[in-house]
Amino acid sequence: MRAVKGESAMKKTKSLSKTAMKRRTFLRGVLATGAAVSVGVPILDTMLDENGVAFAGGEPLPVRFGVWFWGNGVRPERWTPSGAVDWTPSEELAPLATAGVKPWVSVVTGCEIKTATHPHHSGMAGIMTGAHFHQNGNTRDTIVSTFAYPSVDQIAAAHFEGMAPFRSLEFGITRFRGTDEGTSFQHLSHNGPNNPNPSEYSPSRMYARLFGAPVDAQIDLARQSVLDAVGQQIRALQPRVSRADRVRLEQHFDSVRALEMRLAAGASTCTPPENPGDFPDVGGREPIADQNRAMSDLCALALACDLTRSFSMFFSTAGSGVIMWPVGASNGLHQINHDEGPPHDTVHAATVFTMEQLGYFLARLRDTPDAAGSNVLDNCSILATSELSEGWTHSNREFPILVCGRGGGALRGNVHHRVDRESTSIAVLTALRGAGIPAESFGVDESYTYNGSSVFSPGRATTAYGELLAG
């Protein structure tokens, strides 16, 4: 009986601890400069119910939706994997296996943009909104366009409205190097026509936005850590949580500190720095991998702290002119797609490099602890895609689509699903439903996809891909 009473007492104490710890806890302090800062706390066991499957107040554990986008497509013949369940990686998907994230990644091949009339513009609007682009006008030998509808990340943001401090977060990696072809080329996230949510390309400014730290050329982040400002609260928090939670907190704060050091190291290379903590060009070259690591780390921290449920990672823009110097390129990628003939080795190498960066991002989420013994990638549904199939022909067929994460158990992962010229909207709808978003449809006109009874001709797929969804 004593053992039973002791166990009951332990449960009561644990329950009281959970009641005392809010599901969204911030440690707040002041730097020596007088600037106020705050550090989010990850989801801890003490915030959960006794079964560890929901917050103590009954709210479900967070599942997040994201988009990871790169421009100019792939080389389809070197992209498409073989097999179905536990697919065998192709050359261009091999980096995801190397990064150890393949079990969380499903591949959809054979889809196409059904609203295609102008390759880059149609692909961008088609995959992100399931609709035709809205044309604002003409310029030179091309057009100026924007999105006619909200982008898919903002559909998710509307569903998650009020569940996290930030409605959505937009991270930028390689800079926009395009021309005056409208918001479709320059931005990923849109609220509607000519109303984009610009991506943030400065790690230090994103850091300041998330943690309240100032962006100032005179502040050395390596010495004036936000963790120093909240040190007393960290010490007070430790006795209130379990041993497992203490380990999780230590990992979380170590990640914050490591990120501060990385941003500070980046600042020291500026001569002089435009924004301390950012990664300026070196010899005219963008520090692509460094920028990707910093923004990936920031995104992982933001998700772990439940600062947002909807995000986008804009690795490169539609028709991107980024110079992929790490693979030996000396010209912009968009132009290389036009100029380089078969076997397109530079374009292929650029795609492999891009997938290495996606691999880092997914691995960072996988290595970030989340609630109930899971990791952040377990509780995400991420649509990774481009605006073209490939840049040589500017085709919108054989579209590259990955659905990454486990969606809190809603997604199977590690599946290759091959279709025959079906709409990309079906894959997008699948990713939305993988995040627990009860969307019944996605897209309009030729791209319209309805999750239910078919209203189209027999044989035309109109439901989310059950092969990718669990249960």
Automatic annotation (TrEMBL):
Q: Where is this region: Disordered?
A: 182-201
* Database matches in InterPro entries: DUF1552, TAT_signal
Q: Where is the composition biased (Low complexity)?
A: 191-201
Top-rank lineage group of the source organism: Bacteria
One family name in Pfam for this protein: HXXSHH
Q: What is this protein called?
A: Tat (Twin-arginine translocation) pathway signal sequence domain protein
Native source organism of the sequence: Sandaracinus amylolyticus
